[in-house]
Amino acid sequence: MPSAGSVVTLCCALSLILHIVHTDAKDLRDSCSTCRQITDNFSKGFDRTTKKNFGGGNTAWEERKLSKYETSEIRLVEILEGLCDSSNFECNHMVEEHEEEFETWWFKRKTKYPDLFKWFCIDTIQVCCPKGTFGPDCNACVGGSERPCHGNGACDGDGTRAGHGRCSCNRGYQGEFCLDCIDGYFNVERNDSFSLCAECHTSCKTCTGSTNQDCDQCKPGWEKDEAGACNDVDECSKESPPCKEDQYCQNTDGSYSCQACDKACSGCRGAGPSGCLACSDGYGEEEGTCTDINECEQPDQACPGENRECVNIKGSYTCICSSSFEEKDGVCVQTEEPASEESQEVLDSEPTESTMPKFPEEHEDL
Predict the structure, then answer these.
(1) In 322-358, which positions are buried (b, 16+ CB within 10 angstroms) versus exposed (e)?
(2) 10-residue mean pLDDT series, the chain (366 residues)
(3) Which of 154, 130, 129 is nearest to 142 (CA)?
(4) What is the C-alpha separation between 199 and 208, in angstroms, rounded?
(5) DSSP letter assigned to residue 31
(6) Reduced to 3 states, what is the DSSP secondary structure of residue 27?
């Protein structure tokens, strides 16, 4: 029996291997992506420089003595300088590392191999694979390189030297070959190399056709009638509605929703003040609709007391003091107005005892 230490060591080793494999796969995918970006930018640079020349002022002499600009090293250098952003290390590193290959293709292979991506990325530095193939040896994807995953999915690693070639199926499809339909879909057409899946009727969990009569099983919220068709279950019509007392039930296809009653209602069967089972306090029924009661117009005075007014609000009312009155200790009293500037000036100008001039006391002559 292996010791605990050896088990831990084995687990660590397996984790390291998995990490390396994952990292290598990512690097391989990134390398292919970088190479594709470089060759795409090369094509753009080639198009950009199509109508240029040496720019020395005597193009005819330069092309006679040197070479034609369209096949010159000067043009190649101009194109290479525009392949990568200065901050893209991977791109710049790949261009610098394989500069000789670009020169070889430019001067010796371009005519015979016009597809730079295929010549450079696939055949020469071998970081990519042809479309529909994957892995170190560019093996064909499941379903064949012409129609990977039989046209119903994506092949892992497609076009790169990475991946395991297994299919990630499109919506509606499943299985190793993406030929089977998932629940909720049915086969319109199917053979050993082709499958077309279409969506079932919304009421079907599984089906053989597109209508609610083609259901093998109904989805929750639907049930089969006597003819075998799946129909919506109206949860709101049951004896015990599924919603709370201050809500009403709204049926939907295959389900239901609970909506809040109007504030005029004390319990309701539908939307708005006309859907009330009873009216809330402060509301009364008028022609089947709960409407606000204006307490301020009732025979009984809503706001007793002098100098007090009633203000109606939805479902209630409030009492306020009349203009020029304010509430103090539960009663409305006259608001004290501040003294006017003129009266204040008069008060300020009247002499006080402390400011009155003082005179000597008068004495009677003896």
Answers:
(1) eeebeeeeeebeeeeeeeeeeeeeeeeeeeeeeeeee
(2) 51 39 69 97 94 56 59 93 95 96 96 96 97 96 96 97 96 97 96 96 96 96 96 92 92 95 95 95 94 91 89 92 89 80 58 51 43
(3) 154
(4) 10
(5) H
(6) helix
Tokens 């082709």 label which residue?
194
Return the structure tokens found at 105: 């293709």
Residue found by looking up tokens 């984790």 in the block: 15
Read out DSSP for 37-105?
HHHHHHHHHHHHTTT----SS-HHHHHHHT--GGGSHHHHHHHHHTSS-TT-HHHHHHHHHTHHHHHHI
E-only strand ranges, the chain: 133-134, 139-140, 153-155, 167-169, 173-174, 180-181, 185-190, 195-199, 204-207, 215-218, 222-224, 230-232, 247-252, 255-260, 283-286, 289-292, 308-313, 316-321, 325-328, 331-334
Distances (CA, A) of 21 to 18, 129, 360: 5, 19, 119
Q: 271 near 248, Cβ under 8 Å?
A: yes
